[in-house]
What does this fold into?
Amino acid sequence: MARIGVFVCHCGENIGRTVDCARVAEALRDLPGVVHSVDYKYMCSDPGQQMVKQAIAEKGLTGVVVAACSPHMHEKTFRRAASGAGLNPFLCEMANIREHCSWIHEDREMATAKAIDIARTLVEKVKRNRPLKTIQIPVTRRALVIGGGIAGIQAALDIADGGREVVLVEKEPSIGGHMSQLSETFPTLDCSQCILTPRMVEVYQHPRIRLYAYSEVESVQGYIGNFRVTIRRKARSVDEDKCNGCGACTQACPNRKVPSEFECGLGKRPAIYVPFPQAVPNLPTIDRSRCLLFLNRAKGRPDTCKKCAEACSKGAIDFDQQDRLVTEEVGAIVVATGYQVYSIGKETGRDDLHGYGEYGYGTLPDVIDGLQFERLASASGPTAGRILRPSDGKEPKRVVFLQCIGSRDPAKGMEYCSKICCMYVAKHTMLYKHKVHDGQATVFYMDIRAAGKGYDEFTRRAIEEEGARYIRGRVSRIWRDGEVLKVQGFDTLSGRPILMDADLVVLATAVRPQPGIEALAQKLNVSYDRHGFINEAHPKLRPVETSTAGVFVAGACQAPRDIPDSVAMASATASKVLGLFASEMLEREPTVAVVNDALCAGCFHCERVCPYGAVEHREVRNRAGQVVRVVAYVNPGVCQGCGTCQATCPSKSVELQGFTDDQVYQQIQALGL
Amino acid sequence: MDGEGARPFEPRITAFVCNWCTYTGADLAGTSRLQMAANVRIIRLPCTGRIDPMFIVKAFERGADGVIVSGCHPADCHYNAGNYHARRRFAIFRELVDFLGIDPGRLTFSWVSASEGAKWRDVVNETVDRVRRLGPFTAYRELVTDPPVTRVIGEEVPA
It folds into this structure.
């Protein structure tokens, strides 16, 4: 016979104000199976929990219903309390009479009646709960980090320094990400490469980090603690073991006019190239879409140019190299794929981005984006750190910066704030002023958002000490007039239209997630928002976890982030990963499906609908060892407990523990007239 | 009130919702103190994929005047694809509702995410209003004579 205890919480005034808790407790006392029913001011308080424990011990309860807040809030608390009193924690259920009742209704009568109904369904359910054991699954204590920018580097180093092996995957030929392209960083103006490259080298030399550069994640299988990841190692056409990074091949290549990705198109590179001098690993890669030999092969012509191979003293060039697939077993995954800047006018395949054609980006050579300006200002850049405009190589004396291009603009771009632009534009005006002393920097802005340590001081310095002219307003049009660019806009503070001449225009374009992020997110089973940013599990309390257990997120693939934010997030993911790896076994909720062998007809509809591939075939043998039937078996390590199999099963021979048909039907019944 | 007849009809609505999106969205509605009709009773399931169409039929049989089924938006399922299976299942089930003698207006299928507290309120209020206009659902109650439909009170409780 069931012996159920009901505990009704007032939650101070939160529930008590609209729900008559004493009446709820009284109404439930009369239900068959209920042997104890009380109400109390604060059930989750220590005395409240003691009441639960005491009742379990004294009344020999076989089930507990706590009518209080949402199970998402305190289910764990009361399950722990039940467990402390010797009751199986899965014999404790929460009836949500706060979020789903007292907070959303004012009529005391109706709210009380509803609270009684809610609690009654849970009483009927808990009567049919079975004691369950948490599932123990082994953990592979290695981590995969996707993305070798500053976030990925930091996460990999922290995890590896914590004593666990890391596999770091980077899709570009070198790690370093966007940070390696920056000239100097706000708000300290320290050189980006100077602080980044030592960490890149550290990654390369770390005994516990395995680096797969020029590689991409092909597929992901498994679940927390036990992921099986297939990585595509793209063909570099260079043998990594033989190459010593001398660079003779890149010198020998005759096709030297390929726009460099690293220089954002402002510089050129050969078809066999190392993206930048400090690249890690320092290995050249043949760009097959630009190499003469591969272009000829594509047209069915014989190989003509082999200049790189001839120049290589190590015989490292391998024109026949193929993509290779490698498989790695890991227990946790950190996604740190970073961002791209909204490249206006160059965007393809997305209809919702209408671009900013009126600014001439992509058509006027002297209208560039922020990342291109970084390359112009960088000592290692195409102009060796001199600010020279792309069209004629002259030093611009009047530079106009436009903020919020594509950001905070739901009509033409993205409605969110890209966060980093206010700061980097202030930095750009300073870098410009330091290099062109007689130059004038003008900034069109909507608002200055400089929240951060030392950030507001930095933008103030740009305006007050470094002579940048800030105009609050938008620019409507930019056109070319001879050698100058005409900038037409509006000053919203003085209420006057503006027409000014500029030699160079820099657009602070919106930060967007990397292309292909959706496909990756789908491989990882993590959710993403409509812009493609990876969703965190909780915006405040679980900022680096994702909707999938064991998959974490760091840096600008989650939302626009600056370097300190990305590094902080990366270290947070590392602490989560190391915490996960602290024990050899992992505990999981036992809400998994179980097959009744006797009933299963082996139709395997469940196998077809299971989102996790958790259904396996199991042979049932007779005493002679012959296979008599093949039935379904749900692997409890893989099953996540959605219950789709149960709703699909024609013979109802698979049951989701904790949500069995019997339990649900009794709940429905309990609501009946 | 002077008698039974004077009391306005209050529909009884049973809602089958998934734990991750709609249940959490309803939690958010609560946290945001969004006032709504008190006619809906939620039964929490892990996923809309778990919702057997028989649950809906059973709810009507047991006296519900309306049913809400709600879960994660397409592509947002906590279990990746459970809601797609649910969608297919209910696309077919919807065709049968009329055949079962149930006005399709009594049934609401919706997607409410964990961040859509206000949408949950709207789904609740709209469903209650619609069902209120349709009146009590008595077709099944009239059919069932034996055993008489009573509250579960008095039913046998398993050991």
